[in-house]
């Protein structure tokens, strides 16, 4: 399409506006995290003195470091299991004919629709009675069931784009169904598996509801929940700037993933939601 | 290598639709069989039932003497070239061709290498072995798919419209390449196509399918000259056969533009006043002015106004509109079934490229009525098929195949022919 | 994993006895493999959601305080009556609906503009898509903090920027709701715009060129060509976002903690069960919330008359 120079300039202006829209709040929290003393309440965007003080505070705090460890550990475990299960399930629903296929898809859809809080409160009761309350496993399990539908949809969309003939050719060439899956389909679906993993990680990393309802101590509390319970040096000063610093720390993995895999994430989101 | 026998093969889907209906077909060892028909006729389904990608509802599929109905594709020892080639995008050309060998346990790496190289050499792919399919041209991909098919020793090759994704020029080259390869390896081959030229040139025999029913199995020549019914007559040949209403009038036959004597073969099979459909191929016509008188005597001459002419350099077509009357609807239905659309009833005649006939002017035409066929409008049956001539043609085809198979130039257990 | 594969080997086993059985080997094998592969994920999804849902339904019919297990008493639909006759519930329902409508409407308009720019801008494309993913990927709690501090009259820059002096955004219902909506819109518009972008990308350029040749202005092209062809994408985006917005919890928790009449239904369910340990009442709120969400979903599908399963590509 031929676009005149002037309209293209308009689009560029729009693009710059959007970039500003997206990053200014992030820059603000970064800027806040570097403020110290009176700067914190200076009501200005930037600090007058840049200080690492807040970062020292949060990393010195057990509350934050254990929460970070909890978050990273649980997110990695839940993502890994979720993606493995989702890969198998997505292959089945997109490729194989078996009774109950629609049931699997229906349950997945129902879970994405169902309010998290409506699950969290009964789980709270259940976990308390069977001893999963305030444990890693107690969080990983709901993370798994809540991230599976997304992963299944994203992966099913990827599987559908692999031509049927791939498996058929493999079968004619002498492969069993399992060999066809392992030697032909899995290598082709690797980008999709990867994308699903990133999106799943985001979803788990973002969790707040399960984090605050199913934990009561540092034993399993993830970062978002810990942030809400974060206390400063004294009971009375609101630990604004340290919270900002902690917020920046947990945002870094997200930004890194986005920078590295921008294209894959966009493809995964749009495929999974519109077509998948 | 093996013969393929199909006995009353039926494919019925869950909704009761029968994609393939009671097809029985014998394919001899080493024969090149073409399955052809308009879209939706069941030709691909039949091929997929041979290879095992489609379940067989009833009937027997026998390959090399073994009933294979319940066997998985990988246990049937066949190889297939898919329409879109189905190359594995994550594997190199070498690994694509080697794939079937790697799945068979116990073939040494040396042996795999040797066989892949041989296949690649035959298809002139040696320089491309390390490339990925995405970096290949359409023709090269097609050859890789063939390489994967010929690398192991199989009972039969199956092709599912392998050339339809290539442009016209390349298609012509690959067609001769496939023919040459099949002749050299002598492997039984089943080839699905909707392309006239491929059907006519490649096969020893051609099976014409219509809505899941087998219409006629014969050599290309026999199909063209002695079709069993209107469907086969209309399907084979390009441009297609002209169909005109013909009314029996005593011992004459009246057609829209001319009338002829009732052919001997039809006598006794038709009643006076009966409406028939006459079939005349475009090349059964000629510009009457360019004809010597001896030839002129053997057919009918008529005058008609030319609507449009198409001059192609080596040939020329003239279009002559006519009224089909009662049979218009029937002809339109047949046209729709043959994947075309009958916008108007017109006669397509092939005339000499030298002819100076002009559009919108009247011309004088000659029709070779001796080669005309007459069809029953209700059943479509050919009333003038010459069984003796057909038998002769079948005999000829048999001899050709026997001659080819009788002198194999290669050891039969070797997957790729040595030069 | 070799147990997955158990097909007949020799022709002897494959031949005679199989003929009577309708299901061929291949089909039955496919069935088994299907459940073998989908089973674990299915169990993981159902086990953790199925039981809690049923449990919530059951508990919602009891007057049950966690601190007083002995006083547990069956009250039937009593909890529901209590909730539905309480003015506070309807106020929270109103707040939740208001936030949902405002944010989703703003996100749709803004998201469409974003999608148009992303689709058309030839330069800065990568930078644009990367930037847009930051709000999407960022933790909701972090986004809530960022905006809460930005609007705060103690720490924030917003008042300074707009010359509002000591205005307390979190002091009144409406201004507090504005901050919550801004935070929500900022965080979720990118998701909406990516879904819309996918729909936009599926419209062939030919359509727009044809419309141009036919004499359509830029606005007419958007209204008569682009929007009708994006109906499916818009519906999916709206549905997902509406359901999501209706469940708003994180931002409210962080930014207002439900003060100044900004409590939403999710927050109510949380407060009843976790803070006040009124398990029976809290479960009833959860059930009501779930029913409302289902009603919204059904309404969407009805209104757009597009089969969602078709949209989801179950062909």
Automatic annotation (TrEMBL), chain A:
Keywords from the UniProt entry: Cell membrane, Membrane, Transmembrane, Transmembrane helix, Transport
UniProt cross-references to InterPro entries, sorted A to Z: BP-dep_ABC_trans_perm, MetI-like, MetI-like_sf
This protein's record includes keyword Endoplasmic reticulum: no
Transmembrane spans: 12-34, 72-91, 103-124, 136-159, 180-205, 243-261
Primary site of residence: membrane
Residue ranges constituting the ABC transmembrane type-1 domain according to the UniProt record: 68-261
Keyword Protein biosynthesis: no
Localisation per UniProt entry: Cell membrane
Family annotation (Pfam families): BPD_transp_1
Membrane topology: Multi-pass membrane protein
Source organism superkingdom: Bacteria
Family matches, as PANTHER family: INNER MEMBRANE ABC TRANSPORTER PERMEASE PROTEIN YCJP, MALTOSE TRANSPORT SYSTEM PERMEASE-RELATED
Record family assignment: Belongs to the binding-protein-dependent transport system permease family.
Name under which the protein is recorded: Carbohydrate ABC transporter permease
Taxonomic source organism: Actinoplanes sandaracinus
Native organism taxonomy: Bacteria, Bacillati, Actinomycetota, Actinomycetes, Micromonosporales
From TrEMBL, chain B:
Claim: Kinase is one of the keywords in the record: no
Molecular-function annotations in GO: ATP binding
Full protein name: Sn-glycerol-3-phosphate ABC transporter ATP-binding protein UgpC
Record SUPFAM superfamilies: MOP-like, P-loop containing nucleoside triphosphate hydrolases
Record key words, sorted: ATP-binding, Cell membrane, Membrane, Nucleotide-binding, Translocase, Transport
Stored SMART domains: AAA (SM00382)
Organism, scientific name: Actinoplanes sandaracinus
Origin: domain of life: Bacteria
Sequence ranges assigned to domain ABC transporter in this UniProt record: 4-236
Pfam families registered for this protein in UniProt: ABC_tran, OB_MalK
Region (Disordered): 398-419
InterPro entries given in the database record: AAA+_ATPase (IPR003593), ABC_transporter-like_ATP-bd (IPR003439), ABC_transporter-like_CS (IPR017871), ABC_transpr_MalK-like (IPR015855), ABC_transpr_MalK/UgpC-like (IPR047641), Mo/tungstate-bd_C_term_dom (IPR008995), OB_MalK-like (IPR040582), P-loop_NTPase (IPR027417)
TrEMBL record, chain C:
Membrane topology note: Multi-pass membrane protein
SUPFAM superfamilies xref list: MetI-like
Sequence ranges assigned to domain ABC transmembrane type-1 in this UniProt record: 93-300
Location of the protein in the cell: Cell membrane
A Pfam family annotated for this UniProt entry: BPD_transp_1
Gene3D superfamilies xrefs: MetI-like
Keyword Transmembrane: yes
UniProt source species: Actinoplanes sandaracinus
Protein family membership: Belongs to the binding-protein-dependent transport system permease family.
Protein's UniProt name: Sugar ABC transporter permease
Spans through the membrane: 33-54, 93-118, 130-149, 169-186, 277-301
Keyword tags: Cell membrane, Membrane, Transmembrane, Transmembrane helix, Transport
InterPro entries on file: MetI-like (IPR000515), MetI-like_sf (IPR035906)
